[in-house]
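# step 3/5: fold
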Amino acid sequence: GTNENTNGLIRQYLKKGHTMEGVTQEDCDIIAHELNTRPRKRHDYQTPRKVYYQECSYCCTYFLKLGDSFF
């Protein structure tokens, strides 16, 4: 399912039948950035980066509260 979904998203940028001839690495990097920074339904329409940093912030706060008793 994931591969087919990703292929469908890439088709928004590169239409079916379009060859990779003339597509530069910069073009691919832009497409990858667009896809990787899309908000996700599974993350309540937040970007993966935002969710990641929220989790990191939560973990850091949790361990800081534990202080020396954790170690």
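# step 4/5: annotate
The chain has three helices and no strands.
# step 5/5: archive (pending)
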